[in-house]
Amino acid sequence: MPTIAMLSTDNLEDFFVYDELLIPHFNERGWQVETVSWHAKSEDWSRFDYVIVRSTWDYQQHADAFVDCLKEIDSSTAILLNPLPLMQWNIEKFYLNDLQGKGINTVDTLWCDAFDSDAIKDAFAHFSTDTIVVKPVLSANADDTFKLTKQHWSMREEELKQVFASRRFMIQPFLNSVVEEGEYSLFYFGGQLSHAIKKVPQRGDFRVQEEHGGSLFLVDVDETQQTIAQHALDAMPLPALYARVDLIRYNNQWAVMELELIEPSLYFNLDDASPARFVNAMVMYHEKGCQ
């Protein structure tokens, strides 16, 4: 009977978590599932057949310790999913450069090693815009993400200096399509499209996450969206058990906003059939490995 540890964290009271919807489907297939915090000390990871990274939603605050935990799991007899090299490639947003280098449309980005007020000033001219978004290169849940206007950004300069004093960050133009149309997420299990949703921020905000008041809707996606998402998956250095491709309309074309391979919410609550699809993908992965 295969055993799974779903890697989580200590405190999820401020988050929406839907991974428990997988457990009955795994149990029906004879699999045992246990949720384990990545902060757990002296855990014997070898007692599991698989460790699937799921709701580790504070990892960005302790990135080095998190990667050390993943390495410890990877060195055990348990199989880490997604694979460690794939997550290491994905953990910082520099992977967007790899996607762009392979001809995949992404949002134009400036990269900075540490805070520089001139870089902020120059970004408005570079993007020919009055509004930009600044966020860490290693981030999750829209933490430490700033929407800045050309007229008022200096009012937040001291805060920006503190947040990015020793952290690499990225600057992108603010896209009105985020609030006018929303952001689309396509979910793939075992390389196959499972479902897709549209995320819309609450009035007056630009963050689409539920935790920030965003609204989520199950949607159908067209062939063009599926094609660019597939190109992003094809550009990964390794196949993924699960992947989330975030798309945004940019200059009247679809662009990849993010390719999430570590701990994306997979919104099993919005598609009743999606938990079974995930479990089927996991069982197929297991059976293929046993051949």
Describe the structure.
The protein folds into three domains: 3-87 and 271-290, Rossmann fold, CATH 3.40.50; 110-173, Dna Ligase, domain 1; 178-261, ATP-grasp fold, B domain (D-amino Acid Aminotransferase, Chain A, domain 1), CATH 3.30.470.20. It contains nine helices and 13 strands. It has helices at residues 23-28, 63-75, 84-90, 95-101, 117-127, 157-163, 177-180, 223-234, 274-290, and strands at residues 3-8, 32-37, 50-53, 79-81, 110-112, 131-136, 146-149, 169-173, 183-189, 192-200, 215-219, 242-250, 253-260. Strand 12 (242-250) and strand 13 form a beta hairpin.
Can you give keywords for this protein?
13 strands; D-amino Acid Aminotransferase, Chain A, domain 1; 291 residues; five-stranded antiparallel sheet; alpha+beta; Rossmann fold; 3 domains
